[in-house]
Structures are given as C-alpha cells and as structure tokens.
Specification:
Helices cover about 30% and strands about 30% of the residues. With about 160 residues, the protein is α+β, with helices and mostly antiparallel strands. It has a domain of about 100 residues: Immunoglobulin-like (Sandwich).
C-alpha cells in the first residue's frame, strides 16, 4: 500500500512537471490585467469595464478586450485594443455576455487571457418605464395646477412676499 507521504510527493512531482511543460514566458503571468465591471447586471443599457495592470511598474502596454456570448470564447470578437484602462459599452440588447482581456507589448501577446467576466444586460421592463413616465406627468401637471391656482388667489397689484 502507498503511504500518504508518497501520494503527496507524487502529486507535487506531477504539478511540477505540468509547470515545466506548460510554463509561461518569463514575467507573462505578472502582466495579466485584472478585469472589473461596475455592474454585473446592467439594467440601464450601459456598463463600464475597467482593468488595471497586475504590475504597475511595467509601462508601454496595450490591452486587448474580447467579448463573447459563450464562456468558452469560441466565437469571440475583439471590441477594444489600445492603451486605455476602461471602456464603456452601451446599446447592448438583453443577453449574457463574457469578457476577457490580456496585455500586449509591441502588438504581441505579453500575457495570457484574464479570468472571464460575466455581464448580464437586462433592461427595465417597458411597463415600468411607462409607469415612471405617467407618474412624472402627474407630478408635473399637479405642480402646474398648484402654481396657476396660487397665482389667481393673490389680488392684482399685491406681491406675494409682502403683506
């Protein structure tokens, strides 16, 4: 029977072999940007994706941002490439989308892709929007009637501020 210590040793050796086999270029892992979103569920029709470099001492990096409708990114499209650290997306229809980013140096991949980020676009229901409009119209008309009625109650030639 194999001891626990032998199993641990085998697991460590296997992990080390994987690291050596699939090793990233020197410093590449340190350049993976951290991707964030201001709202995981966007109901206003827009949202802001932002990222920051993992190592702020590295300069001259560009970033490549990709969007996909599937978490495996088989049909991904690049929606931004450049030096900026944020992007505002608007006009998206209701759907679940995935985003990932990587840093580039001189147009070549300098880092692996970041951990994918999921954003759901779910607009407010039309009934709610119409309800807000009707309520706003009611408040406007009520205020207008109050002002007109109040102005008729003041005798002509008298100022409302003087008695």
């Amino acid at each position: 029977m194999i001891s626990r210590e032998s199993i641990r040793l085998l697991i460590c050796a296997f992990g080390a072999a994987l690291l050596v086999t699939f090793r990233l270029p020197a410093g590449a892992q340190a350049l993976v940007p951290e991707l964030r979103v201001d709202s995981a569920v966007a109901t206003a029709g827009y949202y802001r994706l932002s990222w920051r470099p993992a190592d702020i001492t590295v300069s001259g990096l560009e970033y490549q941002l990709q969007e996909s409708t599937s978490p495996d990114f088989l049909r991904a499209s690049t929606i931004y490439q450049g030096p900026d650290l944020a992007s505002v997306l608007s006009g998206r229809s209701d759907a679940l989308r995935y985003y990932r980013i990587r840093s580039l140096r001189n147009g070549q991949a300098a880092s692996p892709w970041s951990t994918p980020l999921q954003v759901e676009t779910r607009h407010h229901p039309l009934a709610r929007a119409i309800g807000f409009f009707v309520f706003g119209a009611f408040v406007f008309v009520s205020t207008l009637l109050l002002v007109v009625r109040g102005s008729r109650a003041i005798p002509e030639g008298r100022s409302p501020t003087r008695g």
